[in-house]
Amino acid sequence: MNRSLLWFRHDLRLEDHPALQAALAAGGEVLPVYIIDPQQGAAGSYGIPRMGPFRAQFMRQCITLLDQQLRAIGSGLQVHEGRPAEVLTALSVEHQATAVFAQAHLAWEEQQQEQAVSAVLPLHLGAPGTLLHPVDLPFELERLPRVFTAFRHKVEAHWAVRPTLPAPTELHTPIAWTSRPLPPLFADHAAPQKDAREVMPMNGGADAAMERLTHFTGASRALGHYKETRNGMLTADESSKLSPWLAAGALSPRTVYEAVRSYEAQHGANESTYWLIFELLWRDFFHFTAARYSADLFKRGGIARATPRGVYDQRRFEAWCEGRTGQSFIDANMRELSATGWMSNRGRQNVASYLVHDLGLDWRLGAAWFEHLLVDYDPCSNWGNWQYLAGVGNDPREGRRFNPDLQAERYDPQGSYVDRWKR
Ligand SMILES: Cc1cc2nc3c(=O)[nH]c(=O)nc-3n(C[C@H](O)[C@H](O)[C@H](O)COP(=O)(O)OP(=O)(O)OC[C@H]3O[C@@H](n4cnc5c(N)ncnc54)[C@H](O)[C@@H]3O)c2cc1C
Protein backbone atom coordinates (compact mmCIF):
# COMPACT_ATOMS: atom_id res chain seq x y z
CA MET A 1 0.00 0.00 0.00
CA ASN A 2 1.13 3.50 -0.91
CA ARG A 3 2.26 5.53 2.16
CA SER A 4 3.04 9.25 2.55
CA LEU A 5 4.39 11.34 5.38
CA LEU A 6 2.35 14.48 6.12
CA TRP A 7 4.82 16.94 7.60
CA PHE A 8 3.04 19.58 9.75
CA ARG A 9 4.89 22.87 10.21
CA HIS A 10 3.33 26.31 10.73
CA ASP A 11 -0.03 24.82 9.71
CA LEU A 12 -1.36 23.10 12.83
CA ARG A 13 -4.94 22.51 11.67
CA LEU A 14 -7.03 20.17 9.55
CA GLU A 15 -9.29 22.78 7.92
CA ASP A 16 -8.22 24.56 4.77
CA HIS A 17 -5.04 22.54 4.47
CA PRO A 18 -4.02 22.12 0.81
CA ALA A 19 -1.07 19.80 1.58
CA LEU A 20 -3.30 17.50 3.64
CA GLN A 21 -5.82 17.37 0.79
CA ALA A 22 -3.03 16.59 -1.67
CA ALA A 23 -1.81 13.72 0.55
CA LEU A 24 -5.37 12.37 0.68
CA ALA A 25 -5.76 12.67 -3.07
CA ALA A 26 -2.56 10.67 -3.55
CA GLY A 27 -4.41 7.73 -1.96
CA GLY A 28 -3.03 5.12 0.43
CA GLU A 29 -2.00 5.70 4.03
CA VAL A 30 -1.00 9.04 5.54
CA LEU A 31 1.48 9.38 8.44
CA PRO A 32 1.21 12.81 10.14
CA VAL A 33 4.37 14.10 11.79
CA TYR A 34 5.54 17.31 13.46
CA ILE A 35 9.27 17.88 13.83
CA ILE A 36 10.90 20.15 16.37
CA ASP A 37 14.16 21.34 14.90
CA PRO A 38 16.67 21.89 17.77
CA GLN A 39 17.50 25.21 16.08
CA GLN A 40 14.09 26.47 17.21
CA GLY A 41 15.12 26.24 20.85
CA ALA A 42 18.76 27.18 20.47
CA ALA A 43 20.20 30.54 21.39
CA GLY A 44 20.01 32.82 18.37
CA SER A 45 21.58 36.22 17.84
CA TYR A 46 23.23 37.70 20.94
CA GLY A 47 22.66 34.52 22.95
CA ILE A 48 18.88 35.03 23.28
CA PRO A 49 17.01 31.69 23.16
CA ARG A 50 14.74 31.75 20.13
CA MET A 51 11.64 30.15 21.60
CA GLY A 52 10.55 31.45 24.99
CA PRO A 53 7.93 30.11 27.40
CA PHE A 54 4.80 31.73 25.92
CA ARG A 55 5.24 30.37 22.42
CA ALA A 56 6.42 26.99 23.72
CA GLN A 57 3.23 26.67 25.75
CA PHE A 58 1.03 27.83 22.88
CA MET A 59 2.71 25.43 20.45
CA ARG A 60 2.38 22.56 22.91
CA GLN A 61 -1.36 23.23 23.12
CA CYS A 62 -1.67 23.43 19.32
CA ILE A 63 0.19 20.16 18.84
CA THR A 64 -1.77 18.34 21.54
CA LEU A 65 -5.09 19.42 20.05
CA LEU A 66 -4.01 18.55 16.53
CA ASP A 67 -3.13 15.03 17.75
CA GLN A 68 -6.60 14.71 19.32
CA GLN A 69 -8.30 15.91 16.14
CA LEU A 70 -6.29 13.45 14.06
CA ARG A 71 -7.14 10.60 16.41
CA ALA A 72 -10.82 11.43 16.06
CA ILE A 73 -10.55 10.68 12.33
CA GLY A 74 -8.55 7.47 12.73
CA SER A 75 -5.04 8.86 12.66
CA GLY A 76 -2.63 10.53 15.12
CA LEU A 77 0.37 12.86 15.22
CA GLN A 78 3.93 11.73 15.93
CA VAL A 79 6.21 14.44 17.29
CA HIS A 80 9.96 14.06 16.73
CA GLU A 81 13.00 16.18 17.45
CA GLY A 82 15.80 16.60 14.92
CA ARG A 83 16.67 18.06 11.53
CA PRO A 84 13.60 17.54 9.31
CA ALA A 85 15.51 15.93 6.42
CA GLU A 86 17.07 13.37 8.78
CA VAL A 87 13.89 12.61 10.71
CA LEU A 88 11.79 12.27 7.56
CA THR A 89 14.37 10.00 5.92
CA ALA A 90 14.48 7.73 8.98
CA LEU A 91 10.68 7.59 9.16
CA SER A 92 10.30 6.89 5.45
CA VAL A 93 12.67 3.92 5.78
CA GLU A 94 11.06 2.59 8.96
CA HIS A 95 7.49 2.90 7.64
CA GLN A 96 8.08 2.45 3.91
CA ALA A 97 6.72 5.88 3.05
CA THR A 98 7.58 7.03 -0.44
CA ALA A 99 6.71 10.73 -0.39
CA VAL A 100 6.35 13.75 1.88
CA PHE A 101 3.51 16.29 1.72
CA ALA A 102 3.84 19.66 3.46
CA GLN A 103 2.71 23.25 3.40
CA ALA A 104 5.29 25.51 1.79
CA HIS A 105 6.73 28.28 3.93
CA LEU A 106 8.20 31.49 2.64
CA ALA A 107 10.81 32.32 5.31
CA TRP A 108 14.46 31.59 4.67
CA GLU A 109 15.11 28.96 7.34
CA GLU A 110 11.98 27.01 6.42
CA GLN A 111 12.96 27.15 2.74
CA GLN A 112 16.37 25.74 3.66
CA GLN A 113 14.56 22.85 5.37
CA GLU A 114 12.48 22.26 2.25
CA GLN A 115 15.58 22.16 0.07
CA ALA A 116 17.26 19.67 2.41
CA VAL A 117 14.18 17.42 2.42
CA SER A 118 13.64 17.56 -1.32
CA ALA A 119 17.28 16.53 -1.82
CA VAL A 120 16.54 13.17 -0.17
CA LEU A 121 12.80 12.50 -0.64
CA PRO A 122 10.04 13.40 -3.10
CA LEU A 123 8.55 16.50 -1.41
CA HIS A 124 5.14 17.81 -2.53
CA LEU A 125 4.59 21.35 -1.27
CA GLY A 126 1.09 22.79 -0.88
CA ALA A 127 0.21 26.50 -0.92
CA PRO A 128 1.82 28.60 1.85
CA GLY A 129 -0.33 29.99 4.67
CA THR A 130 -1.03 33.30 2.96
CA LEU A 131 -4.39 34.81 2.02
CA LEU A 132 -3.39 34.98 -1.65
CA HIS A 133 -1.84 32.02 -3.39
CA PRO A 134 1.53 33.13 -4.81
CA VAL A 135 0.59 31.85 -8.28
CA ASP A 136 -2.50 34.09 -8.26
CA LEU A 137 -0.43 37.25 -7.78
CA PRO A 138 -0.67 39.53 -10.81
CA PHE A 139 3.16 39.64 -11.01
CA GLU A 140 6.15 37.32 -10.64
CA LEU A 141 7.59 37.20 -7.10
CA GLU A 142 10.83 38.74 -8.44
CA ARG A 143 8.76 41.79 -9.38
CA LEU A 144 7.11 42.17 -5.96
CA PRO A 145 6.67 45.91 -5.33
CA ARG A 146 8.98 47.23 -2.59
CA VAL A 147 6.24 49.42 -1.15
CA PHE A 148 3.05 48.05 0.42
CA THR A 149 0.66 50.53 -1.24
CA ALA A 150 1.85 49.53 -4.72
CA PHE A 151 1.47 45.84 -3.78
CA ARG A 152 -2.05 46.40 -2.43
CA HIS A 153 -3.24 48.36 -5.48
CA LYS A 154 -2.01 45.62 -7.78
CA VAL A 155 -3.56 42.71 -5.87
CA GLU A 156 -6.82 44.56 -5.20
CA ALA A 157 -7.21 45.14 -8.93
CA HIS A 158 -7.05 41.36 -9.50
CA TRP A 159 -8.70 40.10 -6.32
CA ALA A 160 -8.39 36.28 -6.08
CA VAL A 161 -8.81 34.51 -2.75
CA ARG A 162 -9.30 30.79 -3.17
CA PRO A 163 -12.16 29.17 -1.21
CA THR A 164 -11.30 27.25 1.96
CA LEU A 165 -11.06 23.46 1.92
CA PRO A 166 -13.04 21.32 4.38
CA ALA A 167 -11.31 19.24 7.06
CA PRO A 168 -11.21 15.52 6.21
CA THR A 169 -13.60 13.20 8.04
CA GLU A 170 -11.23 10.23 7.98
CA LEU A 171 -7.56 9.59 7.44
CA HIS A 172 -6.02 6.16 6.93
CA THR A 173 -2.95 5.71 9.08
CA PRO A 174 -1.22 2.44 9.97
CA ILE A 175 -1.92 1.09 13.49
CA ALA A 176 1.83 1.06 14.22
CA TRP A 177 1.86 4.87 13.97
CA THR A 178 1.38 5.57 17.70
CA SER A 179 1.81 8.84 19.61
CA ARG A 180 5.08 9.55 21.41
CA PRO A 181 5.94 11.78 24.39
CA LEU A 182 6.66 15.39 23.49
CA PRO A 183 10.38 16.21 23.05
CA PRO A 184 12.03 18.33 25.77
CA LEU A 185 11.76 21.72 24.04
CA PHE A 186 7.99 21.66 24.46
CA ALA A 187 7.59 19.21 27.32
CA ASP A 188 10.10 20.76 29.71
CA HIS A 189 9.24 24.41 29.35
CA ALA A 190 7.79 25.52 32.64
CA ALA A 191 4.33 26.96 31.98
CA PRO A 192 4.60 30.72 32.26
CA GLN A 193 2.90 32.24 35.28
CA LYS A 194 -0.50 33.74 34.54
CA ASP A 195 -0.71 37.49 34.95
CA ALA A 196 -4.21 38.71 35.79
CA ARG A 197 -3.55 41.89 33.78
CA GLU A 198 -3.24 40.00 30.46
CA VAL A 199 -5.36 41.49 27.69
CA MET A 200 -6.95 38.11 26.93
CA PRO A 201 -6.14 34.43 27.56
CA MET A 202 -4.61 32.88 24.43
CA ASN A 203 -4.77 29.10 24.28
CA GLY A 204 -3.28 27.19 21.39
CA GLY A 205 -5.26 25.04 18.99
CA ALA A 206 -7.75 25.30 16.16
CA ASP A 207 -10.78 25.17 18.50
CA ALA A 208 -9.72 28.26 20.44
CA ALA A 209 -8.93 29.95 17.11
CA MET A 210 -12.44 29.35 15.79
CA GLU A 211 -13.94 30.46 19.08
CA ARG A 212 -12.04 33.74 18.90
CA LEU A 213 -12.87 34.27 15.22
CA THR A 214 -16.54 33.55 15.82
CA HIS A 215 -16.60 35.96 18.74
CA PHE A 216 -14.83 38.78 16.90
CA THR A 217 -16.73 38.48 13.62
CA GLY A 218 -19.98 37.26 15.17
CA ALA A 219 -22.12 38.10 18.18
CA SER A 220 -19.77 40.73 19.66
CA ARG A 221 -19.95 42.75 16.40
CA ALA A 222 -16.43 43.93 17.34
CA LEU A 223 -15.41 43.68 13.68
CA GLY A 224 -17.91 46.43 12.81
CA HIS A 225 -15.85 49.09 14.63
CA TYR A 226 -12.38 47.54 14.32
CA LYS A 227 -10.94 50.49 12.36
CA GLU A 228 -11.73 52.90 15.19
CA THR A 229 -10.56 50.62 18.01
CA ARG A 230 -7.59 48.73 16.52
CA ASN A 231 -4.97 51.04 18.08
CA GLY A 232 -6.23 50.35 21.58
CA MET A 233 -4.03 48.58 24.11
CA LEU A 234 -6.35 47.73 26.96
CA THR A 235 -9.07 45.26 25.97
CA ALA A 236 -9.54 42.06 24.00
CA ASP A 237 -11.97 43.30 21.35
CA GLU A 238 -10.08 46.40 20.30
CA SER A 239 -8.35 44.27 17.66
CA SER A 240 -8.90 40.70 16.50
CA LYS A 241 -6.07 39.07 18.55
CA LEU A 242 -5.98 36.36 15.89
CA SER A 243 -2.22 36.62 15.30
CA PRO A 244 -1.07 33.75 17.59
CA TRP A 245 -3.31 31.27 15.78
CA LEU A 246 -2.44 32.63 12.35
CA ALA A 247 1.28 32.37 13.16
CA ALA A 248 1.01 28.75 14.33
CA GLY A 249 -1.28 27.95 11.41
CA ALA A 250 -4.06 26.85 13.76
CA LEU A 251 -6.18 29.26 11.69
CA SER A 252 -6.03 29.91 7.97
CA PRO A 253 -6.21 33.54 6.74
CA ARG A 254 -8.74 32.37 4.14
CA THR A 255 -11.03 31.23 6.95
CA VAL A 256 -10.74 34.74 8.44
CA TYR A 257 -11.46 36.23 5.01
CA GLU A 258 -14.61 34.14 4.63
CA ALA A 259 -15.78 35.09 8.13
CA VAL A 260 -15.36 38.78 7.24
CA ARG A 261 -17.30 38.35 3.98
CA SER A 262 -20.04 36.52 5.84
CA TYR A 263 -20.23 39.34 8.42
CA GLU A 264 -20.52 41.81 5.53
CA ALA A 265 -23.33 39.78 3.94
CA GLN A 266 -25.25 39.91 7.23
CA HIS A 267 -24.47 43.35 8.63
CA GLY A 268 -23.07 45.24 5.65
CA ALA A 269 -19.53 46.12 4.63
CA ASN A 270 -17.85 49.18 6.11
CA GLU A 271 -14.35 50.62 6.54
CA SER A 272 -13.69 48.30 9.47
CA THR A 273 -14.51 45.10 7.62
CA TYR A 274 -12.27 46.26 4.77
CA TRP A 275 -9.52 47.11 7.26
CA LEU A 276 -9.19 43.62 8.69
CA ILE A 277 -8.59 42.29 5.18
CA PHE A 278 -6.21 45.19 4.59
CA GLU A 279 -4.19 43.98 7.62
CA LEU A 280 -4.16 40.43 6.27
CA LEU A 281 -2.68 41.90 3.10
CA TRP A 282 0.10 43.45 5.20
CA ARG A 283 0.73 39.97 6.55
CA ASP A 284 0.87 38.57 2.99
CA PHE A 285 3.14 41.41 1.92
CA PHE A 286 5.70 40.55 4.61
CA HIS A 287 5.48 36.86 3.72
CA PHE A 288 6.08 37.51 0.02
CA THR A 289 8.85 39.96 0.91
CA ALA A 290 10.51 37.19 2.94
CA ALA A 291 10.35 34.86 -0.07
CA ARG A 292 11.66 37.53 -2.42
CA TYR A 293 14.62 38.62 -0.26
CA SER A 294 15.29 35.35 1.69
CA ALA A 295 18.30 35.71 4.07
CA ASP A 296 18.42 39.52 3.66
CA LEU A 297 15.40 39.69 5.97
CA PHE A 298 17.66 38.84 8.90
CA LYS A 299 20.72 40.90 7.94
CA ARG A 300 21.71 44.17 9.55
CA GLY A 301 21.48 46.14 6.28
CA GLY A 302 18.09 44.56 5.53
CA ILE A 303 16.48 44.15 2.17
CA ALA A 304 17.44 47.76 1.39
CA ARG A 305 21.12 46.81 1.88
CA ALA A 306 21.48 50.00 3.88
CA THR A 307 24.07 50.95 6.52
CA PRO A 308 22.17 51.49 9.77
CA ARG A 309 23.86 53.28 12.68
CA GLY A 310 22.60 51.14 15.60
CA VAL A 311 25.12 49.58 17.99
CA TYR A 312 25.24 46.80 20.56
CA ASP A 313 25.09 48.11 24.13
CA GLN A 314 24.22 45.54 26.77
CA ARG A 315 23.17 48.04 29.44
CA ARG A 316 20.75 50.00 27.24
CA PHE A 317 19.39 46.82 25.73
CA GLU A 318 18.67 45.26 29.12
CA ALA A 319 16.94 48.42 30.30
CA TRP A 320 14.70 48.25 27.23
CA CYS A 321 13.95 44.50 27.69
CA GLU A 322 13.13 44.90 31.36
CA GLY A 323 11.01 48.06 30.99
CA ARG A 324 13.52 50.29 32.82
CA THR A 325 14.27 52.99 30.24
CA GLY A 326 12.52 55.68 32.28
CA GLN A 327 10.05 56.37 29.43
CA SER A 328 6.81 55.22 31.05
CA PHE A 329 4.88 54.39 27.84
CA ILE A 330 7.75 52.30 26.48
CA ASP A 331 8.37 50.62 29.83
CA ALA A 332 4.71 49.69 30.27
CA ASN A 333 4.66 47.96 26.88
CA MET A 334 7.88 46.08 27.54
CA ARG A 335 6.56 44.86 30.90
CA GLU A 336 3.37 43.62 29.29
CA LEU A 337 5.45 41.67 26.78
CA SER A 338 7.62 40.05 29.47
CA ALA A 339 4.64 39.19 31.65
CA THR A 340 2.27 37.85 28.96
CA GLY A 341 4.03 37.31 25.60
CA TRP A 342 1.69 39.88 24.04
CA MET A 343 1.93 43.51 22.98
CA SER A 344 -0.45 45.56 20.82
CA ASN A 345 0.55 46.74 17.37
CA ARG A 346 0.68 50.34 18.64
CA GLY A 347 3.01 49.25 21.43
CA ARG A 348 5.24 47.25 19.07
CA GLN A 349 5.70 50.21 16.74
CA ASN A 350 6.63 52.48 19.62
CA VAL A 351 9.07 50.20 21.40
CA ALA A 352 10.76 49.30 18.12
CA SER A 353 11.13 52.95 17.15
CA TYR A 354 12.48 53.71 20.65
CA LEU A 355 15.09 50.96 20.50
CA VAL A 356 16.33 52.05 17.08
CA HIS A 357 15.97 55.83 17.10
CA ASP A 358 16.17 56.82 20.78
CA LEU A 359 18.48 54.18 22.25
CA GLY A 360 20.54 53.89 19.05
CA LEU A 361 20.66 50.09 19.21
CA ASP A 362 21.01 47.53 16.44
CA TRP A 363 17.44 46.71 15.35
CA ARG A 364 18.24 42.98 15.27
CA LEU A 365 18.52 42.96 19.08
CA GLY A 366 14.90 44.02 19.36
CA ALA A 367 13.77 41.56 16.71
CA ALA A 368 15.55 38.71 18.54
CA TRP A 369 13.91 39.71 21.84
CA PHE A 370 10.50 39.74 20.17
CA GLU A 371 11.22 36.33 18.63
CA HIS A 372 11.96 34.99 22.10
CA LEU A 373 8.88 36.41 23.82
CA LEU A 374 6.02 37.00 21.38
CA VAL A 375 3.32 34.35 21.52
CA ASP A 376 2.46 35.22 17.91
CA TYR A 377 6.04 35.26 16.61
CA ASP A 378 6.14 34.82 12.87
CA PRO A 379 9.52 35.21 11.12
CA CYS A 380 8.19 37.15 8.12
CA SER A 381 5.99 39.59 10.07
CA ASN A 382 8.48 40.11 12.89
CA TRP A 383 11.68 40.70 10.98
CA GLY A 384 9.79 42.51 8.20
CA ASN A 385 8.16 44.96 10.62
CA TRP A 386 11.42 45.54 12.46
CA GLN A 387 13.21 46.32 9.20
CA TYR A 388 10.41 48.68 8.25
CA LEU A 389 10.72 50.61 11.52
CA ALA A 390 14.52 50.61 11.33
CA GLY A 391 14.56 52.05 7.81
CA VAL A 392 16.26 49.05 6.18
CA GLY A 393 13.11 47.39 4.81
CA ASN A 394 10.05 48.20 2.74
CA ASP A 395 9.39 51.68 4.08
CA PRO A 396 9.85 54.35 1.41
CA ARG A 397 10.88 56.74 4.23
CA GLU A 398 14.11 56.29 6.19
CA GLY A 399 12.57 54.52 9.17
CA ARG A 400 9.70 55.58 11.38
CA ARG A 401 10.39 57.57 14.53
CA PHE A 402 7.54 57.90 16.99
CA ASN A 403 7.45 60.41 19.80
CA PRO A 404 6.41 58.24 22.78
CA ASP A 405 5.09 61.20 24.80
CA LEU A 406 2.78 62.26 21.98
CA GLN A 407 1.82 58.64 21.30
CA ALA A 408 0.92 58.14 24.97
CA GLU A 409 -1.17 61.33 24.92
CA ARG A 410 -3.03 60.12 21.85
CA TYR A 411 -3.47 56.42 22.55
CA ASP A 412 -3.46 56.34 26.35
CA PRO A 413 -4.97 59.74 27.22
CA GLN A 414 -6.10 58.75 30.73
CA GLY A 415 -2.84 56.91 31.44
CA SER A 416 -4.81 53.73 32.17
CA TYR A 417 -2.47 51.51 30.17
CA VAL A 418 0.69 52.90 31.75
CA ASP A 419 -0.98 52.60 35.12
CA ARG A 420 -1.84 48.94 34.51
CA TRP A 421 1.78 48.07 33.69
CA LYS A 422 3.60 50.49 35.99
CA ARG A 423 5.44 47.58 37.62
C1 LIG B 1 8.11 45.51 15.48
C2 LIG B 1 6.90 44.65 15.15
C3 LIG B 1 7.00 43.26 15.24
C4 LIG B 1 5.90 42.46 14.91
N1 LIG B 1 6.01 41.09 15.02
C5 LIG B 1 4.95 40.31 14.65
C6 LIG B 1 5.03 38.90 14.72
O1 LIG B 1 6.05 38.30 15.08
N2 LIG B 1 3.92 38.16 14.39
C7 LIG B 1 2.78 38.76 13.94
O2 LIG B 1 1.80 38.06 13.65
N3 LIG B 1 2.70 40.10 13.83
C8 LIG B 1 3.74 40.90 14.17
N4 LIG B 1 3.62 42.25 14.07
C9 LIG B 1 2.43 42.84 13.42
C10 LIG B 1 1.28 43.25 14.35
O3 LIG B 1 1.76 44.02 15.42
C11 LIG B 1 0.51 42.05 14.89
O4 LIG B 1 0.17 41.17 13.83
C12 LIG B 1 -0.77 42.51 15.56
O5 LIG B 1 -0.49 43.39 16.61
C13 LIG B 1 -1.52 41.30 16.09
O6 LIG B 1 -2.68 41.72 16.77
P1 LIG B 1 -4.11 41.37 16.20
O7 LIG B 1 -4.18 39.94 15.82
O8 LIG B 1 -5.11 41.86 17.18
O9 LIG B 1 -4.11 42.24 14.86
P2 LIG B 1 -5.30 42.88 14.04
O10 LIG B 1 -5.13 44.35 14.08
O11 LIG B 1 -6.59 42.33 14.44
O12 LIG B 1 -4.95 42.41 12.54
C14 LIG B 1 -5.43 41.18 11.98
C15 LIG B 1 -4.27 40.35 11.51
O13 LIG B 1 -3.56 41.01 10.47
C16 LIG B 1 -2.17 40.71 10.57
N5 LIG B 1 -1.42 41.96 10.79
C17 LIG B 1 -1.88 43.09 11.36
N6 LIG B 1 -0.91 44.04 11.34
C18 LIG B 1 0.16 43.49 10.75
C19 LIG B 1 1.47 43.94 10.43
N7 LIG B 1 1.91 45.19 10.72
N8 LIG B 1 2.33 43.08 9.86
C20 LIG B 1 1.97 41.81 9.55
N9 LIG B 1 0.74 41.34 9.81
C21 LIG B 1 -0.15 42.16 10.39
C22 LIG B 1 -1.99 39.78 11.75
O14 LIG B 1 -1.96 38.45 11.29
C23 LIG B 1 -3.23 40.06 12.58
O15 LIG B 1 -3.62 38.99 13.41
C24 LIG B 1 4.71 43.08 14.44
C25 LIG B 1 4.63 44.47 14.36
C26 LIG B 1 5.72 45.25 14.72
C27 LIG B 1 5.59 46.76 14.62
Strand arrangement within the widest β-sheet reads 3-2-1-4-5
Count of β-strands: 5
Give the termini distance in whole angstroms: 61 Å
CATH class of the largest domain: Alpha Beta
Helix and strand run:
EHEHEHEHEHHHHHHHHHHHHHH
CATH fold description of the largest domain: Rossmann fold
Average pLDDT confidence is 95
CATH architecture of the largest domain: 3-Layer(aba) Sandwich
Helical residue percent band: 40-55%
Poorly predicted residue ranges: none
Domain unit count? 3
Strand portion: 5-15%
For the biggest sheet, the summary is: 5 strands, parallel
What ligands are attached or bound here? flavin-adenine dinucleotide
Q: Any idea what the shape is?
A: globular
User: Going by CATH, what is the homologous superfamily of the largest domain?
Assistant: HUPs
Structural class: alpha/beta
Q: What is the count of DSSP helices, taking H or I runs of 4+ residues?
A: 18
Q: What would you report as the Rg, rounded to the nearest angstrom?
A: 21 Å
Short précis:
By secondary structure, this protein is an alpha/beta fold. Helix content is 47%, strand content 6%.
Written account of the structure:
The chain has three domains: 128 residues, Rossmann fold (3-Layer(aba) Sandwich); 121 residues, Serine Threonine Protein Phosphatase 5, Tetratricopeptide repeat, CATH 1.25.40.80; 122 residues, DNA Cyclobutane Dipyrimidine Photolyase, subunit A, domain 3, CATH 1.10.579. A five-stranded parallel beta sheet has the order 3-2-1-4-5, with helices on both faces. It is α/β, with parallel strands linked by helices and 423 residues long. The protein contains 18 helices and five strands. The protein is globular and about 65 Å long. The structure holds flavin-adenine dinucleotide. Flavin-adenine dinucleotide (FAD) binds next to helix 9, helix 11, helix 14 and helix 16.
